[in-house]
Design a protein that fits this description.
Elements (H helix, E strand, L loop, with lengths): L2 E6 L6 H13 L2 E7 L10 H14 L17 E6 L3 H7 L4 E5 L3 H17 L4 E5 L10 H9 L10 H11 L6
Parallel strand pairs: 1-2, 1-4, 2-3, 4-5
The structure holds adenosine-5'-diphosphate.
Adenosine-5'-diphosphate (ADP) binds next to helix 1 and strand 4.
Length: 177
Amino acid sequence: MRTALFPGTFDPITEGHLDIIRRGLKIFDRVIVAVARGVHKETLFSLDERKELVEASLADAPLAEVEGAGPDWARDKVSVVEFDGLLVDLADRMQVDVIIRGLRFVSDFEYEFQLALMNRQLNRRVETMFLMPSARYSFLNASIVREVARLGGDVSALVPRPVAARLAKRYRTGGSS
Ligand code: ADP
């Protein structure tokens, strides 16, 4: 059974993250989404909210369509955990040896390369694998989503429904919850 860890801040989860999870499910039997406490970053949503939004989005979004498989087959393959501290320690605790990360454009590369090499230095057992999202999400990041939502723009095509609703509530620009 091959399992991959998909770590991030997920502040909030976007369609770009879901795209990477779907691609991960093509390669791995299970994907564990690891939501970082993220003390190095000031987050819009608390750790509990970010985790809850990941769970609600996974429950809401079609993760994969496979002929003959029930609509929920992929959902059973994704779990969500929170973590604090070193990612490689989490990988050890969960006995996972692959980390997946999304690679959008050239600007991601330098940071991701550094991070992957540092993680390898810390733990030689763990490999990092990069997956490219659909071109339509390659410009997308959570901070742009937060900024557009803050200014009252429509982000519904960029984030799962539970996130769009939560952002609308947060910024009081309408929305269903
Ligand atoms: P971090 O705080 O570690 O940068 P993020 O929550 O921003 O975490 O992202 C987690 C992972 O998801 C990273 O590998 C990032 O490259 C990837 N990611 C974020 N947005 C997208 C996107 N639109 N398409 C593909 N990958 C993405």
